[in-house]
Amino acid sequence: MGRGKKIVDIELVVEKAIALIEEGGVEEFSTRRLAARLGISAMTLYNYYENRGAILKGVLHKGVSLLWEGLAGEISAWRSRGGSPLGVYRVMTDHLLSFASSRPKLCGFIITEGAGIDWSADDSSIEEAISASGDRALPRSEGLRRDVYLYEVLAFALALKVISGGETAERYRELLAESYELLLARHEGVTA
């Protein structure tokens, strides 16, 4: 490891951190391991990031971006098949399950560490998911906002259960279908 070696691409730090988390989970992640993976000293790493938490914050933001990557296309396909405006939440939760299944440790980290994130404000693809068309936002009464929030909380909690092995993907889909009917279907066709 060369002292003073410069990192050419700061994104590489986040990419390697994500790889370490995906291999061993956030519990196994350390700046020492990350520096070794990058071929630099830990002190050089601290020239770019104040501490471990700052690196994990970068991982969280990149992870959220990866989580929702491709969602806009899935929503567009849903709409082109005549899917209902609120049905995009089903698309979103299917997308979440797919990501959780393919990248469980990263998804678990995103969900647990990102609990305080306003998902709709943090990523434009989620904001797109709650619009009735490509251009016009779906009217959101207080009741609809509350029900969407509850549906999202259930989806993220159930995704964590799937990741931990406490729930199956089939049961995730079943419970969210029931939740959709109880929480969101009653708002279908409501225009104010």
The gist of it:
It contains eleven helices and no strands. It is mainly alpha-helical. The protein folds into two domains: 40 residues, Homeodomain-like (Arc Repressor Mutant, subunit A); 121 residues.
Helix content: 55-70%
Helix tally equals 11
The count of strands amounts to 0
Helix and strand composition category: mainly alpha
List keywords for this structure.
192 residues, 2 domains, mainly alpha, Arc Repressor Mutant, subunit A, 11 helices
Written account of the structure:
Residues 132-137 have low confidence and may be disordered. The protein is elongated, with a radius of gyration of 19 Å. The protein has two domains: 10-49, Arc Repressor Mutant, subunit A (Orthogonal Bundle); 67-187. The chain is 66% helix and 0% strand. It has helices at residues 10-24, 31-38, 42-45, 52-68, 71-80, 88-102, 104-113, 119-122, 124-129, 142-164, 169-183. With 192 residues, the chain is an all-alpha fold.
Which helices and strands, and how do they pair?
Layout: H1 10-24, H2 31-38, H3 42-45, H4 52-68, H5 71-80, H6 88-102, H7 104-113, H8 119-122, H9 124-129, H10 142-164, H11 169-183
